[in-house]
Amino acid sequence: MTKNVLTLLLPLLLFSCRQNTKETNKDTVKDGNKSTTLSSDTSKLSKIVDLTIFKPTHVKFKYVFIGNSGQNERLSVPGPSDSYLQALLYFDTATYRQLKTKYFYADYVSPNYNKQDFNFEWLDTNTRKELLQSDTSYHGHSDFFLGLGVKGKLWFLKDKVLLTKTTN
Q: Do the domain assignments include residue 14?
């Protein structure tokens, strides 16, 4: 009897574990060697950028990863992988004020960023409107989230930051 019960429960247990794995990846779409993630999961974003110094209250991001391992039909020779990140980080007022103060005191020349680089297609109407009306006169660096030597940019809005990062 115990053997029969175990025989019935084991497949159910394995099936339920498999279902949970699929649910955690429901915001990622794979197409060959390219995977695209559109998510608001802060823990997933924290694996891509450093959120330990200035923790956002919530996030929304799009991450594209193109794996060039040579294990697919497009490429037979391995090469470096590419990735692209677009993120919107929301902060409480106190954290945002600390971030902006440190960022504006950074001794770097003005980056002269283009607003259109941050006009992500997935932004909501209000954020897009705020971006298009925002000030372009600030200066600083993106090391708070991306680390030294990483290609990335920040754009400040009210209590939120737009962030881009690329590997190429």
A: no
Domain assignment of residue 2, yes or no: no
Domain holding 116, by residue range, is 25-166
Q: β-pairing, 160-166 with 151-157?
A: antiparallel
Q: Report the distance separating Cα 162 and Cα 59, nearest Å.
A: 10
The total number of structural domains in the chain stands at 1
Per-residue pLDDT of the chain (168 residues; tens, 9 = 90+): 555 544 544 444 444 444 333 334 688 899 888 899 999 999 999 999 889 888 999 999 999 998 877 655 554 556 677 889 999 999 999 999 988 887 766 655 556 678 888 999 999 999 999 999 987 766 555 666 776 556 788 888 999 999 888 876
